[in-house]
Amino acid sequence: MLSKEKTIEQLENNIRVCQKCRLCKTATKAVPGEGNINSKIVFIGEAPGEMEDKTGRPFVGRAGQLLEKSLEKIGYKRENVWIGNIIKHRPPQNRDPLPDEIAACEGFLAMQLEAISPLLIVTLGRFSMNYFYPEGKISRDRGRVIRSGPYNVYPVYHPAAALRNPGMMKDFLSDFVGIPAVLKKLESSNTVTSNIPDVTEHDDGQLGLGL
User: Fold this and answer.
1) What is the pTM of this model?
2) What's the whole-number mean pLDDT along residues 111-135?
């Protein structure tokens, strides 16, 4: 059985040579994700942008700068957490990823998360949230914890959207500063999602933490 480190390394190598969808033909570099694979918290965005495509690293443009500053405010550096995207190659002109492209990358992210086994997944934007919670609405569900299979998912607005919209920026920052309290509450529940206290039920039957 491969170690966690070897598993992640192998996945990254497979992502870099992946040709499962059309995006590999227009992208410059694949962006597998990076950071501390032993972190209890991971951040998952939508897809690489222009700077990410050039460097092969996630969140290194203006949105990445906002993410790093927001992490610093809650006592983290980007190297303390793991950061990735649901899509591993940049869609042309930063268009929305298509369903078949998401499906093509789905296995990679699933295996990365299985290896890392985070206590909390912070989803950045609606595409990332809907990957875990298809019925979700970002304006309704942001800033609360939602169970998705074995994972605890905490949706926030995408940093790029926050940069374009002052209202979203306010919500993004307020939700972000709540992350340490969410993590502390999950840790106190012994990381067992079925025993998380103060669970409230969504109207559609999904479960979330009342925080």
Assistant:
1) 0.89
2) 97
> Which CATH number goes with the domain that contains 9?
3.40.470.10
200 contacts 192 by C-beta, under 8 angstroms: no
Whole-Å CA distances, 173 to 5, 110, 115, 129: 32, 28, 29, 17
**Residue 43 and residue 64: Cα distance in Å, rounded?**
11
Distance CA 89, CA 95 (A): 12
Task: Give tens-digit pLDDT for 2-51.
Answer: 899 999 999 999 999 999 999 999 999 999 999 999 999 999 999 999 99
Spatial strand order of the sheet with 34-35 comes to 34-35, 82-85, 41-45, 120-124, 151-156, 145-148, 207-209, 199-201
Evaluate whether 75 touches 34 at the Cβ level (below 8 Å).
no
Nearest to 133 by CA among 205, 187, 84, 63: 205
Tell me which residue range forms the domain holding 158: 4-209
| Residue that the structure tokens 């993590």 belong to | 183
- Counting the structural domains of the chain, the total is 1
Q: How many CB atoms lie within 10 A of CB 37?
A: 18
Identify the CA nearest to 115 among candidates 29, 43, 39, 13.
39
